[in-house]
Design a protein that fits this description.
- The complex is a heterodimer.
- By secondary structure, chain A is an all-alpha fold.
- Chain A is built from eight helices and no strands.
- In chain A, helix 5 runs antiparallel to helix 7.
- By secondary structure, chain B is an all-alpha fold.
- Chain B contains nine helices and no strands.
- In chain B, helix 1 (about 5-10) crosses helix 2, helix 2 (about 15-40) packs parallel to helix 4 (about 70-85) and helix 8 crosses helix 9.
- The N and C termini of chain B lie far apart (about 40 Å).
- The chains are: A mainly alpha, B mainly alpha.
- The interface between A and B is large, with 32 and 42 residues.
Chain lengths: ~190, ~180
């Protein structure tokens, strides 16, 4: 390797950036090259001058302010994290309750939907009308017409519920129970 | 000693001690580099503080697997370049003569060091912007030539030749002044 190449390596050697092999080669050259030795000596002296000239650092209050800022940001991040955790816990709790409710509902012996109930109700009314014609019912009991009217209203209500895709099973249960009472046990739902 | 990567990771995981250790490791170097670029202690302090604030506030975007020092010096360089663009005259004529050296030591020594610093800062002011950037990043920032090349968007040989030029000029100027 030429002297010029070693001269180029001198800066990298000074800053410790030569590979192990390159460093060995450079040191070997350095030991027998007065020009490189002089250059390296000057570089070290120059570096010392620079170190003296840049001896200070930023003011203490600035250093403290920066560290305080870092801590403040960290606390802010922790508070946000905690808030998210709490909200997350609540969300999970609510979701768990909903999941449990749905599971219990699915585990009921006779799972019903608005659609199922509606079909059952229509069958029930048809059966009632077949076995007990309206005229007969009117003749048999004065209140029967009101009962049929009420049943029809309930039927309309269920139709609306179906159209609106409502699935309020509890309300449906209440409605069906009322229909059952009104029908005075003629049919069971 | 914990590596920069370990400290960065700790900090990103919410450990303030990770940041404190990185700050302790780099605060002096960063200030010196910015001072070398700006040659104005009060401006250097402003940019130094702004650099750290950016680091703190942009922690979320930092990848702990990347080089922390490169990221830090990149932020400082961008801020300094912004300042150069806005106030070009500050870079050339804005060398503050006051408060350059901590006044704890004896007056004669303070005066001598102040003089030495002014000489060096004046000498640095005679280099091109790229030479100043490369020289300060390598000499005071402790950034390797390959990292400097990446940071400045130049190739490695350019970084090395700029360093050679900078050292040659500085040695000549300072030698003449002394």
């Amino acid at each position: 390797m030429s002297h010029e190449q070693f001269e180029k390596d001198l800066i990298r050697y000074f800053y410790g950036e030569l590979s192990e092999k390159e460093e060995q080669e450079f040191k070997s050259h350095l030991s027998s090259c007065p020009a490189c030795q002089k250059e390296l000596f000057e570089l070290k002296a120059f570096s010392q001058t620079l170190e003296k000239a840049f001896a200070q650092e930023a003011k203490k209050k600035i250093l403290e302010r920066i560290q305080a800022k870092a801590e403040e940001e960290m606390n802010k991040a922790s508070a946000t994290w905690l808030k998210r955790k709490v909200i997350g816990a609540w969300a999970i709790a609510v979701l768990a309750m909903i999941a449990i409710g749905i599971s219990l509902w699915w585990l009921l012996p006779e799972r019903k939907t608005i659609s199922d109930a509606y079909l059952a109700f229509v069958d029930g009314v048809q059966l009632l009308e077949q076995k007990f014609p309206t005229e007969y019912l009117i003749a048999y009991e004065q209140d029967s017409e009101d009962m049929i009217e009420s049943l029809e209203q309930e039927l309309e209500g269920l139709e609306t519920a179906m159209e609106n895709d409502e699935n309020d099973f509890y309300q449906l249960e209440v409605d069906l129970y009322q229909i059952e009472i009104m029908s005075q046990g003629i049919f069971e739902i | 000693m914990r590596t920069d990567e370990e400290l960065s990771q700790a900090w990103c995981d919410g450990d303030i001690e990770g940041f404190k250790a990185l700050f302790k490791r780099y605060q002096r170097r960063l200030y010196q580099v910015i001072l070398g670029w700006t040659k104005n202690p009060s401006l250097a302090e402003d940019l130094f503080q702004e650099s750290w604030v950016r680091v703190i506030e942009h922690k979320e975007v930092f990848d702990p697997n990347k080089n922390f020092s490169s990221w830090l010096f990149q932020i400082a360089l961008n801020l300094t370049r912004d300042h150069w663009r806005k106030e070009k005259q500050t870079k050339i004529t804005g060398i503050e003569q006051s408060e350059l050296i901590d006044s704890k030591e004896n007056p004669e020594q303070v005066l001598a060091e102040k003089e030495a610093q002014n000489q060096v800062l004046n000498a640095l002011g005679q280099l091109s912007e790229l030479e100043q950037e490369v020289f300060m990043l390598r000499h005071f920032g402790g950034i390797s030539f390959s990292e400097i090349a990446e940071l400045l968007g130049i190739n490695l040989n350019t970084a090395l030749s700029r360093m050679h030029q900078a050292v040659k000029h500085l040695k000549k100027i300072i030698g003449e002044l002394q």
